Amino acid sequence: MIRVHHLEQSRSFRVLWLLEELGLPYELVEYSRDPKTRLAPPELERVNALGKSPVIEDGAVTLIESGAIIDYLIRRRGGGRFAPDPATADYDRYQMWLHYAEGSAMLPVMLNLYVTTRGGETPPLRARINDELVRHRDYIAAALADGGYLVGPAPTGADVNLAFVAELLDAAAPGAATPAIQDWLTRLKARPAYRAAIERGGDPALRRG
Ligand SMILES: N[C@@H](CCC(=O)N[C@@H](CS)C(=O)NCC(=O)O)C(=O)O
To answer: Residue 161: CB within 6 Å of ligand 1?
Structure first.
């Protein structure tokens, strides 16, 4: 059975959510954040030397990195569900969005988190962070302007990977919440699999980092 190493209120919620969408059984190993530092406990380093989640174990395979885990679960365990047909151009766009979440969009979110919680903020840095937050927020909103999902009329693993980031991004970026992003999040969060993942691993929306 797939084992998921899940840190509370974290990115690893994505993996639980996807496993629920795919109807795959999984075993949960839960970790609590340090109440002061919000960092992961040292026990997580036993499965990932970086001390970060998500981590999955599936037989002899151990994987870290949300995007790689989502790709693995869909290809190897999900029979291709929750992704477009690999022979289509939609699949290429799906891969782009899957990687975009952590590869590009997460950077300004993390920078914003670090300077607001750890100090070191300067006017030029704040201006640069805000510019990037707005740029990425608007990029995501434009992709969702038709009221659908990132690629096509149904959610894919790319939506699972980006939702966590986009919610933080929309909250951190200057200005009002973005209707296209908020509407998409509302639809995703209403899915029974999203609710089931909260039942198993807790609500990721409480405090994040
Ligand atoms: N790009 C990685 C990031 C992993 C990561 O930073 N995870 C955070 C959870 S949101 C973590 O474990 N933080 C705890 C810590 O750094 O102590 C992924 O998406 O899997």
So the answer is: no
**pLDDT for residue 80:** 86
What value does the CA radius of gyration of the chain take, rounded to a whole number of Å? 17
Q: For residues 51 and 151, give the distance between their C-alpha atoms in angstroms, rounded to a whole number.
A: 32
pLDDT band with cut points at 50, 70 and 90 for residue 123: very high
Domains (ranges, CATH) in the chain?
2-82+193-201 (3.40.30.10), 89-191 (1.20.1050.10)
Closest to 77 measured CA to CA, from 56, 92, 93: 56
136 lines ligand 1 (CB under 6 A): no
User: Would you state the pLDDT for residue 174?
Assistant: 95
Of all protein residues, the one whose alpha carbon is nearest to atom 3 of ligand 1 is 65
